[in-house]
Amino acid sequence: MNRIIFSISLILLFIIGSGCSKEEAKPVSVEPEEEETVETDIKDEIEEAVPDYVYPLTGIGTDNLVDQRTVAVMINNDPKARPQSGLHKADIVYEVLAEGSITRLLAIFQSELPEKVGPVRSARDYYIELSKGYDTFYVAHGFSPDAKEMLQAGEIDNINGMEYDGILFKRASFRKAPHNSYITFENIMKGAVENNYATTHDQKPLPFLKADQLESIVGEAAVKAKIAYSKAESTIVDYQYDNELQKYYRYAGNESTTDLDSEEPVLLDNVFILETSHKVLDNAGRRDIDLVSGGNAYLLQKGKKQEVQWKNVDGRILPYVNDQPVGLVPGKTWINIVPSLEAVTFTETAN
């Protein structure tokens, strides 16, 4: 009897011991496999998040090859020409006075190509000089005497509506000349090919801040900026910072700057306002504008205003502090050139 009880006890101990050993062994073989899988997945996600290329004029990454040649288009900014087409897709826009108190816009495209651009307006020598800094294919409709001489001398690859009116450039029926000349991007490229101009090139990148540097942007709070090119309401430009989007809206004559067709607003990451000498040259009001000497400027980024200097570096107007370049926020940039910074006022809050 004792032998039977002893044998049964041994069997029970063996069964219990086997069960425990299996339960204890179970997590040991699983946990390393789970950790290895998680680490591999995170690594794969990080690698997938890094873009292969970066647009040189916006600093924004892309998986597509960036070799599109930059295109600069002269865009009409007369009140009768608003709202315009294509401005919301421009990487950089220069806003500079032409004759009188009306500005004209030089829109430079590369990262986004609008279907249609316009109304297209005539060239001036200083717009051509600004375009040369980016080796652009230059598009205009008309020209001043100085600009005509530069274009005919081949200083920049270009097409002009004076030659291609009704061919590459089309007149819109809902506006009157000279506020109704438009061109599609397809026709811009067609004009480049027909004239044996390059349609691809390598573009030197602008200096951009990295993601971990954006929090270190310095300056006084300035969520609103007003630029009075004259006392006329239609010539006054306003910028307003949207804290949620972390971008600036642009207004002209108290109207939001939006695309004519899509109604998409112009949204900006950098607003660069600089002063330089303006001289009226003739009875028509044509100007000579100093784009070389450098001087005082404001740079608006992330709702802050920084006092900087501007310099012309290889044809590009860039912000500097203590002779060091100031990095731009990745995204789109609008550059206002004014005769005096006294025309510019700021508001610290939205209200």
From TrEMBL:
Domain DUF3048: 57-197, 226-335
Cross-referenced InterPro entries: DUF3048_C, DUF3048_N, YerB-like_sf
SUPFAM superfamilies named in the record: YerB-like (SSF159774)
Name of the protein in question: DUF3048 domain-containing protein
Species per Swiss-Prot/TrEMBL record: Bacillus mesophilus
Lineage: Bacteria, Bacillati, Bacillota, Bacilli, Bacillales
